Amino acid sequence: MTEIWRDRAAVGRFALLHVASLAVFAVPFEWSLVGWCAGSYVVRMFGVTAGYHRYFSHRSYKLARVPQALVAVLAQTSGQKGVLWWAAHHRAHHRHADQPKDVHSPRQGFWWAHVGWVLSTEHESYDPRRIADFGRYPELRWLDRHHWVPTVAVGAGIWVIAGFAAFVWGYLLATVLLYHATFAINSVAHVWGTREFDTADDSRNNWWLALLTLGEGWHNNHHYCMSSCRQGVRWWELDATYLGLRLLAALGIARDLRPYVVRAGQRAA
Hints:
mainly alpha, 12 helices
């Protein structure tokens, strides 16, 4: 906790991105720019939820090697570091959820859980043994070391294809929104919401976070059955990531989607 602001370069880049995103007020407004922002956000959020989280962290479905690498690239377009770094820390989170060894519990401070742990030097490395199942692939190790390449490529591509205004909306603003929606699962979803299951942590279900994160807001459901590819349990709990993975399974890209299992004697309230 004492090292929260020690990585000044990371803090500087994070602050600069937020300041740069304010350029949305300096470029002429067009509805097409909102489309760039929404499209960039949704596609890259799917990379976070289906890639970083449900695939690399929890192995809740299977992919062949080429689609696996492509999902890793898509995840890293979000600018949230490498897939091995992300998944290793997330596995540590589940192992020690809301306990002293949790890397981002709000019990250590809401701001720490939301973004402080990412900007700290305390967690800039990870235990490769925790992610050895994916660390054996050289292409994933390369992507993890050069995690900035996919996100820079997307930003540059948007600028070249659609111009500076689209870059501001479709990359700068969309990336800031991606950051805080993702980070809110670590902070907000462990503080505010409802609990369908009696888990040993503070996880909560939060419907508006579920909308913003394509289903990740059903966080208490997820902590109850973390291996499941599905997080929305009830029919009305929209889980857009799961629907997307069902489509990929129908196309023969994803396979062996792991089901949601409620143990005997327990059910959603």
